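Onboarding guide, step 5: your first structure request.
Type a short instruction followed by the sequence, for example:

Predict the 3D structure of this protein.
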Amino acid sequence: MPSSEPDFDRETRVAVAAAEEAGGLLRRRFGAAYCLRTKDESGDVQVDLDLAAEKLVLGRIRRRFPGDRILSEEAGLLDAPGERTWLVDPLDGSNNVAIGLPAYAVGIGLCLGGAPVLGVVHEPVTGLTWHAVRGHGAHGSAGTLPGPAPGLPRPGPVVAWTQGYAVRRGDVTAVALRGALELHCRRVLQLWAPLLGWSLLARGTIDAFVGYRAEGVDLPTGALLAAEAGVELRTLSGAPFTPGFAGDDSGRSFVAARGETLSYLLREVGAVA
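The system replies with structure tokens like these:
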């Protein structure tokens, strides 16, 4: 049955084109990137490519949708009236790029009234792009994204982990969560680029994603991609999780998986969270 949700076709075309153009720039200039500054005591950095890619993406969106708000990783909030807010992470994985690690992505999302309706993730290293529209599924160049298998893999799930930059190194809950995952999962990936974790989950190449006080600018984009691929999103206590970007980070902790894997991880994190 066709979805009754809007298809946001024009918005998708603009976002995909902007993400891929920015990705081409990042790929060409990857080896020559340099660090402009350290943002805060967490050690998060800004490289010159952050600003170059952001300028390109913001220019495309503002030309096509001049009445929309934009929240961007580097520029902050470019305010406008209305309920439509674009979320832009022009270079997710700046810390990786700064040390020459080719693991990074471009993320562009659109939220309506605070809820994600469109998500685009582009991986410059492979040239692959994945996108999702609420109610219309998640797709890539090879077709519909399958999401992870619902069964619990043996000897355990492969799980991506992310935590927000405001989380201190010795945060008791973060340490306990990571410890539980390391103990009960086959592998825990700390990618320094959450959008890559979401795309891996949506494609079914990893089994789950766990986040603690995650960053808001890329969370709705990646979470929508996974949800439209059939992934269930829950809070650490097992309640339904709504991926938003507003407010403080206390409401941005989650477990994303399917079936037995979801139940298994909720039991493990629930014991320590």
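Each response can be followed by summary notes, for example: DSSP finds seven helices and 15 strands in the chain.
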